[in-house]
Specification:
By secondary structure, the chain is an alpha+beta fold. The protein has ten helices and 13 strands. It has a nine-stranded mixed sheet with strand order 5-4-6-7-1-8-13-12-11, with helices on both faces. Helix 1 runs antiparallel to helix 2, helix 2 runs parallel beside helix 6 and helix 7 crosses helix 8. The longest helix has 27 residues. Strand 9 and strand 10 form a beta hairpin. The protein is globular.
């Protein structure tokens, strides 16, 4: 097993009420169905969101290149802040890090973001680097699973997972489609870093701050490649978002969760804490219904959606930190961290506090 010893969330600097963003989208998309826009934004379950630029600055971004340059600069700043915070919470110096994995699907960089952080963070030159692109909202859970896989093979090592997602930079000002309107209602900008250590890593300076990672499961649903993702266009990433996603969740997720848990001698009723990505109200309702979750099981997730919106891959890590701070589970209890993303796919991570 591996253990999560610290999580640090970071939000983009500009915070807005949902209605302010609705007004900005309305002025940016004069061809959009205004009644649909208002309904979608009003039903998103979001009260506030964070953006990496002031709202009036997005009109100055001239194409994909300008937006991607903004992504790289902000990803470096926010990523460094998140990793420094996580290492400080763990009481560890950057020199102990053996692997840094970076997940993001809202911008491109070569050298990758992890390479750009080597110097600013003071990481060793022999650190292993693992940049992962294209997993979307599932990447926070998938990245944690891949870090766990690494630490099983290198049990004396320390690993960092960094997620940086700047969703606002992908907004398409010439796309009045319903998918773009839904995206403009939900997504926000943020980052998160996790420090995890193998089972034989030296003890840190204080008590463990997080749960053990026991196991993980990935599930890909065939013939769902157009359910969620990007169309890469001259103007950047154009969102693909199928309204049938809640139906995919209802059709498959319960069986996948049950199969995963049964392999470890567990059932749904054994899970005391559900750390769930806040994909949106319809998806959260589908998850709660199909898993027959008790009232309040996803309260931390709903609160995250309302206060900061959907941060793509960073969201589930924000929910993890909020869970540890607001509803820290008793020692020995089980948790399941889960996220859904393009593919269409589910990522499940079994935790034990």
């Amino acid at each position: 097993m591996s253990r999560i010893v610290a999580v640090q969330k970071v939000l983009a600097p500009h915070r807005y009420r949902q209605r302010d963003i609705t007004d900005q989208v309305r002025s940016s998309l004069p061809g959009a169905d205004r009644s649909l826009l208002d309904r979608v934004h009003g039903a998103a379950g979001v009260r506030f969101r964070h953006t990496v630029l002031p709202l009036d600055a997005y009109a100055d971004l001239d194409g994909f290149g300008a937006a991607n340059d903004a992504f790289i600069g902000a990803a470096e700043r926010m990523g460094a802040e998140a990793v420094r915070g996580a290492l400080a919470s763990a009481g560890l110096a950057s020199g102990v890090v053996d692997l840094i994995a970076v997940v993001s699907t809202t911008g491109l960089a070569a050298p990758s973001v992890d390479a750009r952080l080597m110097g600013p963070l003071g990481l060793r030159p022999d650190v292993k680097r693992l940049p992962l692109f294209g997993l979307g909202c599932a990447a926070g859970a998938a990245g944690l699973a891949r870090v766990h896989d690494y630490l099983r093979g290198w049990p004396t090592h320390t690993a960092v997972l960094l997620s940086v997602e700047l969703c606002s930079l992908t907004f398409q000002r010439s796309d009045p489609s319903p998918a773009n309107l839904v995206g403009s209602a939900l997504f926000s900008d943020g980052a998160a870093a996790v420090v995890a250590r193998g089972s034989r890593a030296p003890d840190g300076p204080g008590p463990p701050l997080g749960p053990e990672v026991v196991a993980s499961r990935s599930r890909f649903y065939p013939a769902t490649e157009r359910a969620m993702g990007w169309d890469v266009t001259d103007s950047g990433f154009r969102i693909v978002l199928d309204p049938g996603i809640p139906g995919i969740v209802r059709a498959h997720l319960a069986d996948d969760v049950d199969s995963f848990l049964s392999g470890h001698g567990l059932a749904r009723h054994d899970i005391g804490t559900w750390v769930c990505h806040p994909g949106g109200p319809k998806v959260l309702d589908a998850i709660a219904d199909t898993l027959n979750l008790s009232s309040g099981a996803l309260d931390v997730t709903w609160h995250s959606l309302a206060e900061v919106g959907n941060l793509s891959s960073a969201s589930v890590l924000h929910v993890l930190q909020d869970t540890q701070r607001r509803r820290r589970p008793p020692p020995g209890t089980w948790g399941l961290l889960l996220a859904l993303g393009p593919g269409f796919c589910a990522e499940l991570v079994l935790l034990r506090w």
